[in-house]
Amino acid sequence: MIPFVIDGQPVEGKEESNLLQVALDAGIEIPNLCYNESVKPYGACRLCLVEVVRNKRSRLTASCTYPVQPGIEVHTRTDKVLRARRMMMELLLAMCPGDQRLQEMAKEMGVKEVRFKKGDKDCILCGLCARVCDEVVGAHAIQFYSRGDRREMGAPFAGEAMNCIACGACVIVCPVNVIGMEEKADERTITRWKRTLKMKQCKVCGNTFAPWFQVENFREKANLPKDFFDVCYTCRS
Amino acid sequence: MERINSPQTLEEFRQAVISKRDPNQAVITICTGTGCHASGCHQVVAAFKKVLSEHPEGKRVNLRMTGCHGFCEKGPLVVLHPKKILYQKVKPENAQEIFEETVLKGEIIDSLLYAHPTTGEKIVHEDEVPFYKKQMRIIFGNNGSIDPASIEDYIAVGGYRALPKALLSMTPEAIIKEVKEANLRGRGGGGFPAGVKWESCRKAHGDTKHVICNADEGDPGAYMDRSLLEGNPHSVLEGMIIGAFAIGSHEGYVYVRNEYPLAVINIGIAIQQAKDLGLLGKNILGSGFDFDVKISRGGGAFVCGESSALVASVAGDVGEPRAKHIHLVESGLWDRPTNLNNVETWANVPVIILNGAKWYAGIGTEGSKGTKIFSLVGKVNNTGLVEVPMGITLREIVYEIGGGIPGGKKFKAVQTGGPSGGCIPESLIDLTVDFDRLTEAGSMMGSGGMIVMDESTCMVDVAKYFMNFLKDESCGKCTSCREGTKRMHEILTDISEGKGTIDQIDLLGELGWATAEASLCQLGGTASNPVLSTLRYFRKEYEDHILNKRCLAKVCRSLLTYRILSEACKMCGACAKACSADAIIGKKKSKKVEGIPYKIDAEKCIKCGMCFESCKFGAVEVQ
Question: CATH: 3.90.1150.10, 3.30.530.20, 3.10.20.740, 3.40.50.300. Which one for A2-109?
Answer without folding.
Answer: 3.10.20.740
